[in-house]
Every structure is written in C-alpha cells, then in structure tokens.
C-alpha cells in the first residue's frame, strides 16, 4: 500500500472513531472537522506534488494537485505549486493565473510572492518581478527573506541594474551570511568594481558552503590572476578543466580570454 493510501486511510479512520459514551458532535463541530480533513487531504496531495516536481515528474505532480483541489478548492499552496509546474512546462498564462489565484486566497504568503516574482523575472518582466519580491519582504514573519532578496538581486542584474543588485545581495548576506548564490554574485560584482580583496573573501566563503560550479571557479581564476596568486590561479583552472571540461568558462580559459 502506498504512502498516500496509508495517510488517507488513517484520516478516514480518525474521522470515524468516537470513544464509547462520548457526546455526539454538533453540526458546527462536524462542519469544522470536515473542513479540516479536506484541507489535510489537500496538503498531503500538494506535498506529494512538490516531491514529484523536484524529480521533474510533472504529469504526476499535476495529477496530485488536481486531487488537492478536488479535496479543497481554496487550498492556496496547491495553486502556488500549480504555478511552479506550469512555469517549468512553459505554459505561462496558466502558470500566472495559478500564482494569482494563490495570492487571492493567501495574499500575505511570502513564498508565493517570491515564486511569482521568479516566474516574472525568467520571462524578462523585471519591474513587476521586483515588486513581487518586495511584497514577499513586507511580511515580518517570512522565515527565509534571503531567498527573495537573492532573487531580487539576480533579477536586478538581468535588468542591468548592478547598483540595486549589489544592495539586495548585501541585504541577503546580512540575513543569511552563507547564502551561496548571494556570495557568488556579490563576489563577481566586487571583482568587476576592482575590489579584489573583498571579492576574494566572499568567494572563499562560497566554496566553504557550496560545491564548485563553472562560474565561481572561473571567477577564482581571474581573481587570482589579478592578485598575482599563481598557485590559486592554477588550482582553480585545474578544477575547472577537470570538472567542467565542456563549459563555456573552460573554453574561455583554454583560449586565454580572461576579460
């Protein structure tokens, strides 16, 4: 029997159980109980959909989400998840409609604002994207504001606003000093500004908390070269060639195109 079946059976058994001699529930209590059970079923289906989404099994994720909505048509997280799935499927109108529906039902849900903002940013709609990230940040109870701050920084860079990007990344690192993407992006900005020692500190912190990837390794090569550290330059270059032989950064390295 699969996990979902076990969970649903447990819910149904719990709903039917009543201790001997207990008073019969009032109609209001019964209605409240039914709402809670429906929402719980919707939550279970949405969590399963999120799991399938991370595995890129989008068709199954959509089926789980349809079951979630059938259980509770006002369960906002299901619409948020619908938006993410349809975003990956490039069904943009449907994705946007679902993000909007999620926010109609739960207007203060910061993670939905963050996800909707990222959708807009990936579609080069930068101004409304930044507005959504800022909406996410208005909620003082948002448990992970560094996510929206980092996304706002990335989106600002895509829009050509390096000054705003720098400010967002710095705010993200004040909230979460080890946020990997903020570390890597801010290190790159400082490098372009000629602030090499500061860039080097941030890049070292990035490699302490994250696996190497082509862009940070390539930044390490160029930064070490600027600072005259031949050993570090050789080390970063060797990692780049061995781990990411086909990456654009490796081709730049092999062609000596450092700038």
**Helicity level, as a percent range?**
over 70%
Largest sheet: none
The Cα radius of gyration reads: 24 Å
CATH level-3 fold name of the domain at 177-258:
Serine Threonine Protein Phosphatase 5, Tetratricopeptide repeat
Number of helices, where a helix is a run of at least 4 consecutive DSSP H or I residues: 14
Keywords: Repeat, Signal, TPR repeat
Protein name: Type IV pilus biogenesis/stability protein PilW
InterPro entries: Pilus_4_PilW, TPR-like_helical_dom_sf, TPR_rpt, Ycf3
TPR repeats: 76-109, 146-179
Summary of the model, kept short:
76% of the residues lie in helices and 0% in strands. With 259 residues, it is mainly alpha-helical. Helix 2 (27-54) runs antiparallel to helix 3 (58-71), helix 6 (110-122) packs parallel to helix 8 and helix 9 crosses helix 10.
């Amino acid at each position: 029997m699969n996990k979902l079946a076990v969970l649903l059976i447990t819910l149904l058994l719990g709903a039917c159980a009543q201790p001997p001699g207990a008073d019969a529930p009032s109609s209001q209590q019964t209605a409240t109980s039914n709402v809670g059970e429906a929402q719980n079923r919707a939550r279970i289906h949405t969590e399963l959909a999120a799991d399938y989404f991370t595995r890129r099994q989008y068709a199954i994720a959509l089926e789980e989400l349809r079951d979630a909505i059938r259980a509770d048509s006002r369960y906002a997280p299901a619409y948020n998840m619908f938006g993410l799935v349809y975003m990956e499927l490039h069904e943009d109108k449907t994705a946007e409609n679902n993000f909007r529906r999620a926010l109609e039902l739960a207007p203060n849900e910061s993670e939905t604002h963050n996800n909707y903002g990222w959708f807009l940013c990936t579609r080069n709609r930068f101004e409304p994207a930044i507005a959504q990230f800022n909406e996410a940040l208005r909620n003082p109870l948002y448990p992970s504001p560094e996510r929206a701050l980092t996304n706002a920084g990335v989106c600002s860079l895509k829009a050509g606003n390096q000054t705003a990007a720098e400010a967002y990344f710095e705010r993200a690192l004040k909230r979460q000093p080890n946020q990997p993407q903020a570390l890597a992006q801010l290190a790159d900005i400082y490098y372009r500004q000629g602030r090499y020692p500061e860039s080097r500190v941030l890049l070292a912190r990035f490699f302490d908390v994250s696996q190497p990837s082509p862009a940070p390794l390539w930044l390490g090569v160029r930064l070490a070269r600027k600072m005259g550290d031949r050993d570090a330059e050789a080390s970063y270059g060797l990692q780049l060639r061995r781990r990411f032989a086909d990456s654009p950064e490796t081709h730049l390295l092999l062609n000596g195109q450092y700038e």
